[in-house]
Design brief:
By secondary structure, the protein is of the alpha/beta class. The protein has an eight-stranded parallel barrel with strand order 1-2-4-5-7-9-10-11, surrounded by four helices. It has a two-stranded parallel sheet with strand order 6-8. Helix 8 links the parallel strand 9 and strand 10.
Length: 365
Amino acid sequence: MAHHTPRHPVPDPTPPGEVADDTAEATGPAADTAGRLSRRGAPSPTRRGLLAATAAAGLGALAGCAGQEAESASGPSSSSSRSGGAGAPGPSPSRRPARRRPELPRGGRRLSRYRLVGYCGLPGAAALGRLGTGDLGDRIAQIERTARAYATDREPLPVLELLATVAQGTAGPDGGYRSRTPAATIRRFHRAARRHRALLLLNVQPGRAPVLDEVKALREWLVHPDVGLALDPEWQMGPGEVPGHRYGHTTGGELTRVARYLSGLVADHDLPEKPLVFHQVAESVVRDQSALRPQPGVMMIKSADGIGSPGMKRETWRRLVADLPDGLCTGFKLFYDEDTQGGGSLMTPKDVLALRPRPDYVMYE
């Protein structure tokens, strides 16, 4: 693997194990090290290298998806008051009104009525996606416009996919090869998502840390009805492996365990259906896919993650969606910069909606 010499690191005022506040621009080794694997296996100094680099300077059961019934646009119906006849007294003053069940940001409790469309990123790191650049309100407005372009057969639901756990090229104090985004940043994005009736999706790149531990660390956010989860298993490393040197991997059984944990939160808090996305760049990244088991209250989405021309992306799509397990939904990832390098063109919403099966989630980086 070729090596690139990084510039001198910038001193890091951030406590070990956390990334810096999102007001700072990401610089130093995290912005310079080219530890990324390209989709063809060669290193390239772009976003995935930034993700895998050291965080020294501020980045520290359900039926098949296509068969799910779309939920009515109306919310839960309220029960009418019982009456004992004309002149009968009304309900006892001590009786509390029925509690309204939590719903998705734009109503209802099932995701099948929506097509999820969003941007991903991390504040202060422009190379990680558009969500981390510019005014957050402006970015969400752009997501809204993009989402409406996909509203042909479903209602649009904008998504903010925030990197909540970031793989890094150094071990850190606990040997986890990852850093966690500060709670203040997650809170800011959650509030923005609520203002715009959008879904916040927390992305986990676990490094060497146990993935379920990283998911459980986000519990205070995942108990909200408008927060879902995304996993990036190419950054899930085994013992002795370092992010950026090779693709990581997960298994169908491990993904099922994460889904089971989310299902428990949904049941315990009476939450609406919750998305669990896993981005997959190559077939080797998810081993023993047949062990995937959909869980009640969780929409599992396999997102095809590949850079290239429209023809290359369609071929990656066909490979990754072949022989999908029952109940597994699909997603598709587009790259504003990498997909258009060398004069290539970005696939249009019409192009993406022509894929079969149609993606349930479309994400732009």
